[in-house]
Design goal:
single chain; alpha+beta; four-stranded mixed sheet; 3 helices; 17% strand; globular
Length: 134
């Protein structure tokens, strides 16, 4: 399971990423991402009118979408989601804060192994500039 602060849950967030976000396509996965502006906490002022820390970006939030087109069986769709979540947990420390990311699964992903998911997901996130240092 991804940590609570890294989960993309609300339909409004998914809708915004689908409408305004960038897309990167791989053989088995599709990554959509939307970079959000920095969040300003309390307008940057303390009660004594001194400046607080500069605005900090919110943590990257990730959602996973597996359509029934991939498989009609929920067991298979859930297995794919577990594999993707496991790959994302490994990549989480390297992700740049301030992104909303949706990982979509294509039907060809049924025959994928974990290592393939990890490699393709990492490459797509680098292409989308979601991973630190790129």
């Amino acid at each position: 399971m991804l940590p609570q602060e890294h989960r993309l849950k609300h339909w409004r967030d998914f809708k915004a990423v689908y409408q305004k976000g960038i897309r990167r396509y791989g053989r088995h996965l599709t990554v959509r991402g939307l970079h959000l502006p920095r969040v300003n906490h309390e307008d940057g002022l303390r009660s004594d009118n001194s400046q607080v820390n500069p605005p900090t970006p919110s943590p990257t939030r990730i959602g996973i979408s597996v359509s029934q087109k991939v498989s009609k069986k929920a067991v298979i769709r859930n297995r794919l989601k577990r594999r993707i979540r496991a790959a994302l947990r490994q990549l989480l420390p390297r992700l740049t804060p301030g992104w909303h990311v949706i990982v979509g699964v294509r039907p060809s992903a049924l025959e994928c192994e974990y290592a393939q998911f990890l490699q393709e997901l990492e490459q797509l996130l680098v292409d989308a500039e979601v991973i630190n240092g790129h």
